[in-house]
Structure formats: structure tokens, C-alpha cells
Write a structure and sequence with these properties.
Blueprint lengths: L13 E5 L4 H12 L3 E6 L2 H13 L4 E5 L5 H15 L4 E4 L14 H29 L2 E5 L12 H21 L5 E7 L6 H6 L5 H6 L9 H12 L10 E4 L12
Parallel strand pairs: 1-2, 1-4, 2-3, 4-5, 5-6, 6-7
The chain binds coenzyme A (COA).
Coenzyme A binds next to helix 4 and helix 6.
Length: 260
């Protein structure tokens, strides 16, 4: 499947993407580069940043990479400041950094629950908060990567469900509070996306076929499906869309999101 959007729809934009080295948001960063944006990416893992920076530069893009843990507000502030020093501005923020593992609620420690909430929910707030002044200047926008796990209920995912419900709340609240500054805030809730580290870790191979049959479109999503949604929501084509979380899941959540 090809990308459906014309080249250069993000020409001249600077995009700051957390978790932008790998997985779904790694794909989004590459798609933004193809659409003309200059990239700033963060990850906890320097080796992943180096590989993604190299890929983007070899393909004619610009990439500024900063090691940062989104749980650490000072590190986030520093990453934002360094990006502005480097490019002079930030137009788009994508919150993709996330943590996940499968665990039954009765076996999950308080720290395990809190760790995922810290990465996903507090991390998203930290980045939005630290980027606010720059986004106000650029009349920029925020795209938060969420999930559908909490729409019904997903066993072994209480921590991520709670964390992503918080992310959706952040999307709605900021869209209302920051709309007056010209800042659009939206989200994407991906369903099961194949070829991601997360899906490899979370879905036992023997369950893939069973799960596929329960997806109305009868296939897993691909990273390019999320890239297309991200390009649409961050482009001027979506200039009156604010405060939504776009579900990109083939209709899966309507039939339930449990893995087993
Ligand atoms: N099952 C149950 N609890 C787990 C767990 C698992 N598979 N993995 C981690 N935890 C718990 C730990 O036991 C610890 O709690 P404790 O102190 O009570 O024992 C707590 O979570 C923190 O773990 P730690 O490994 O110190 O955190 P971290 O910050 O290094 O790692 C995670 C963060 C837990 C999210 C880790 O899974 C991770 O880094 N994953 C890679 C990124 C990722 O998941 N991306 C998303 C793809 S969808």
C-alpha cells in the first residue's frame, strides 16, 4: 500500500517526535521526512537514534537526535530547547514514546503500573507542557499516539489501558485549552499493527490468526496505515480537526481487543 498523500505536504515544518527511532512512531518520523519535514527525534536508546538518524539522512532528510526519557521533565525541556537551538522552531509534536508488557492485574506491582502511566501519560503531558511556548509561536500542533485497549476492557493490559485513557484525556483537554492559541491537538489510536516490536512481544504467534479473524477488515494494520493517518491529521487538510483521537484499527475494537 502506498502513501496516499502528496509529497511535500509538511515542507518547511519541524517535527519533534518522541519514540521516533523505532516502531510506529519511527515510521511516522520517516513519513514526515518524505513529506518534507525536518525531524527531531528522541528515545531512551542512543543506538536506535543513531540508526534512524542515519536512515533519514541517507534518504535526503534532516534529523536531530536527542537521548531523553519522557518521564524526566528536565530531560524533555532540554530536548525541546536543543531542538529549537538547532532548527529555530517546532511546528509539530508527536508523542509516541510508550511502554508495554502483558501482565495480569493481580500479578502487576504498583511500580509496574506506575511505570507505564509515567511513560505514556506523564510523558505525554511533559512533552506537551515543555513544547507549549514554541507551539504557541508556530501555531503548531500535537499528535498523541494512544490505543483502543480502554474503550471496552483488555485483560493483562490494565496499566496500558489506564495510561492511554489518560493520554486521550490530555488530547481532549489540551485541544480545548490551547485551541485559542491556534494549536491543534489530536490523537491516533492504532489497532494491532504488524511488524512492530510491541506486537512481536505482546502477541504470541499462535494467536495471530485467531485475532485476525476477529478484525472486521480481516487483516492486521501496517505502519503505513498509521503514517497516512498522521500525515492527514498534521497537514492542512485537517486544519479544522481538533480534539479527536482517530481510530485506525480496521474496526477491531468494536468486537473487543482482548488477545486471547
Ligand atoms: N511483567 C510484569 N511487570 C513488569 C514487566 C513485565 N513483563 N516488565 C516490567 N515490569 C515491572 C517491573 O517489575 C518493575 O516493577 P517492580 O519494581 O515492582 O518490580 C516496573 O515494571 C519497572 O520496570 P523496569 O524494567 O525498571 O522499567 P523500565 O523503565 O526499565 O522499562 C518498561 C519500562 C517496563 C515499559 C519496559 O517494558 C520497556 O522499556 N519496554 C520497551 C519499550 C516499550 O515497551 N515500547 C512499547 C511497545 S508497544
Amino acid at each position: 500500500m502506498d502513501k496516499i498523500f502528496a509529497d511535500n505536504i509538511l515542507q518547511g515544518k519541524v517535527a519533534f517526535v518522541t519514540g521516533g527511532a523505532t516502531g510506529i512512531t519511527g515510521g511516522v518520523a520517516r513519513a514526515f521526512m518524505e513529506a518534507g519535514a525536518r525531524l527531531a527525534i528522541t528515545s531512551r536508546k542512543e543506538e536506535n537514534l543513531i540508526a534512524q538518524k542515519q536512515f533519514i539522512e541517507e534518504n535526503g532528510g534532516e534529523c536531530f537526535a536527542v537521548v531523553a526519557d519522557v518521564r524526566d521533565y528536565a530531560a524533555v525541556e532540554n530536548a525541546i530547547a536543543k531542538t529549537v537551538e538547532h532548527y529555530g522552531k517546532i511546528d509539530i509534536v508527536v508523542n509516541g514514546a510508550a511502554g508495554n508488557f502483558l501482565c495480569k492485574a493481580e500479578e502487576l506491582s504498583a511500580n509496574g503500573f506506575g511505570t507505564v502511566v509515567d511513560i505514556d501519560t506523564k510523558g505525554t503531558f511533559n512533552v506537551c507542557r515543555a513544547a507549549f511556548e514554541e507551539l504557541k509561536k508556530s501555531k503548531g500542533q500535537i499528535l498523541n499516539i494512544s490505543a483502543t485497549l480502554h474503550y471496552l476492557a483488555t485483560p493483562m493490559q490494565i496499566h496500558v489501558s489506564a495510561a492511554k485513557a489518560g493520554v486521550d484525556a490530555i488530547t481532549r483537554n489540551l485541544s480545548v485549552e490551547w485551541g485559542r492559541h491556534g494549536i491543534r491537538v489530536n490523537g491516533i489510536a492504532p489497532g494491532p499493527i504488524e511488524d512492530t516490536e510491541g506486537m512481536k512481544r505482546l502477541l504470541p504467534p499462535e494467536l495471530k490468526e485467531k485475532l485476525t479473524r476477529r478484525i472486521p477488515l480481516q487483516r492486521f494494520g501496517r505502519i503505513v496505515d498509521i503514517e497516512n493517518a498522521a500525515l492527514f491529521l498534521t497537514s492542512d487538510a485537517a486544519s479544522y480537526i481538533n480534539g479527536i483521537t482517530l481510530v485506525v484499527d480496521g474496526g477491531q475494537w468494536l468486537l473487543g481487543t482482548s488477545f486471547g
